[in-house]
Amino acid sequence: MSGGKAPRRVLSHALLFALLCSTALVSTSGNAAAFEIFGIKLWGSSEDEDADIVDPLRYAVTIEAPDADEDLVKKLENASALKADEERPVSGSLGLMAKARGDRDQLIAALYADARYEGVVTITIEGKPLDDLPPDAEFSGPQPIPVVINVATGPKFTLGDIRLEGDAAGLASADFGLIAGGDAGSGAVLKAEVSIVRALKEEGRPLAKVTDREIIADHATSTLDVTLTVAAGPVAGYGDTTVEGTEKVDRDFTEYMTGLERGRQYSPEEVDEARDRLLGLEVFNSVTLKEADSLDADGNIPIGVEVSERKPRYFGLGGTFSNTEGLGLEGYWGHRNLFGRAEKLRIEGAISGIGSNDLTELNYNAGIMFEKPGVVGPASKFFAGVNTVLEHPDAYDRFSVKGNTGLSYELDKQQTVSAEVALDYSKITDSFGKHTYLIASVPLRYVYDNRDSRLNPTNGFRLLAYAEPSYDILNGAAFVKLRGEGSAYQSLDTASKFILAERVAIGSIIGAGLQDVPADRRFYSGGGGSVRGYAYQGIGPKDIDGQPIGGLSFFETSLEMRIAVTDTIGVVPFVDAGTVSTEQFPDFSDMKVGAGVGLRYITPFGPLRVDAAVPLNRGPDDPRFGIYAGIGQAF
């Protein structure tokens, strides 16, 4: 590509390519004899992987961009398929030239994304320019064949004259990030187009689209003039919803769960929520919702749904470890589509305390859970379960059988409420003696969650409010357990390399004294899930033998700085604090504080976590340090 010397130049095909391909994925496939897990090769060799390549030719690529800063060099390297696949040979000389030509287009797109519209990309193979090589060129020199990519970036452009025409003429371009003197990268222009069309669609206009685009680069002033013409189309309601791709999942049920009622005014947000709701059923690998290209005879927009189903059965194993709590193992089996309408059945069991408890005092947990979505509307879910627990923490020994049933409802994409009824029969031995309970309760829950990711959030927050009125049928005690929790996440840089995470939790039990509340329902603190550095349940009041007795109130807070060292490795320094009180309001004068550092390894199913912490105001019965391992962030 050449920058050209004309004072003004219309960028048509090249810029359009950059707008549509500003992010590109290049992949190769083949039968691999090697085995990798989490990116670590356990056996096999690169020669095994390359056995299927005809006439393999190895090369070594060098990217030279003397005018580029470190950030742009990284973007260019990420855009280069030659660089990404350098360890894997190509198929002969023709394969190398084809890969180099594709690379040039991607590198130009990367320059355009950085608003470099005078950039020049030159690729040489064995010292010869790519464009001078004949189609049947052969590279017979010693391997790896040298490939040099030279990038002259040119100046960075800014936005110049901006015009919105057609049905977008009344909109302010600044509202969509198009500001004179602002970012002129192809990604910014493309994002503005999407935002403008989205704004018109939010008026109920499903056919809104950009009908014309004029992009002109003024090389004399290094500015980019942008003219966008938009057609809004008419306001319309939903037409028929058709579903394709279902096999074992009921097709009518899938249509029902979209919640797109025929005739109701179209909303792109509702279409997004419908897609998320179908994915949330966990029976589909992928879900695509697409509006038709035209309205039906009634002036409504038909919606097409395409899905691909997941395997209905699944099973898994997991584990946690702590030097203060021992080893925990769990296993589960589940069915995602029991009767054809995304009903879930899950059977699970767990053993914990291995290594920290005597063999006769290991902790056991087994349960069965059933869920049925869509019982009173697409946003609802019925659930029921039975759970049995035999556990021996320091605070008590407990055997329990509990049954529960309830309903949850999504008020919107961020808000969920749930209510259930539960009956719990338990035998508990604690500092106050042996007791038998039969507790009837009505747990109520409200959750607000706008985090950008459930597994590894970088922005947003989550709030929980919980109330559980309870009555002990055998002993006549009545009490209410209240709990609130909030966690917030903030990215401190554009690349989300530094994430500040905070958590606060508080709770109180009202209506009964400490001895009237079963030991397993009191509040405890300490351990891997609360205040690291202390033993499990190790914070709070204790009996004369130094064993925890729990409390009627608690308070916890945590602060973490999640630092990404690489794309998969992270380091997390943290501070935790907490207190437990026998009064109905926490005693903040008796806070226990722990601090430490953790290591994270990012995987598709969540971070693998190892934390090490020490108590900062250690008591005589507290450990000197704590080490915790598990899956997922601490909060």
UniProtKB/TrEMBL annotation:
UniProt KW Membrane keyword: yes
Native organism taxonomy: Bacteria, Pseudomonadati, Pseudomonadota, Alphaproteobacteria, Hyphomicrobiales
Keyword presence, Transit peptide: no
Origin: domain of life: Bacteria
Signal peptide interval: 1-32
Subcellular location per the Swiss-Prot or TrEMBL entry: Membrane
Alphabetized UniProt keyword annotations: Membrane, Signal, Transmembrane, Transmembrane beta strand
PANTHER family referenced in this protein's UniProt entry, alphabetically: BACTERIAL SURFACE ANTIGEN (D15) DOMAIN-CONTAINING PROTEIN, SORTING AND ASSEMBLY MACHINERY SAMM50 PROTEIN FAMILY MEMBER
Domain Bacterial surface antigen (D15): 337-635
InterPro entries, per database record: Bac_surfAg_D15, D15-like
Name the UniProt record assigns to this protein: Translocation and assembly module TamA
